[in-house]
Amino acid sequence: MKIMTKFKGTNMITTMITTLAIRWLTWRLRKDKDFWESYQSNITMVIFDRLYRYYPDLKNKEFAFNIEFCNLCANDFMELWTRK
Fold it and tell me: With the CA atoms of 39, 82, 76 and 14 taken in that order, what torsion angle do they form, in degrees rounded to the nearest 10?
């Protein structure tokens, strides 16, 4: 029974640390435009890579349109994340 109690306490501390880290990250994203842009570009590339992985026919389409679409998706995600 002591092991479960110790595990529950550790789990609660981990949850608290994670919550604080997300709050800090959200605060930084709201305050720092460069930080925002770096996160947005990383998210854009993940969406872009997945788009080509699951829809290979899109490789024949215009590249600029696809990257702009992914950029808009990433920006929408970032705005939802940092909304107060």
Answer: 60
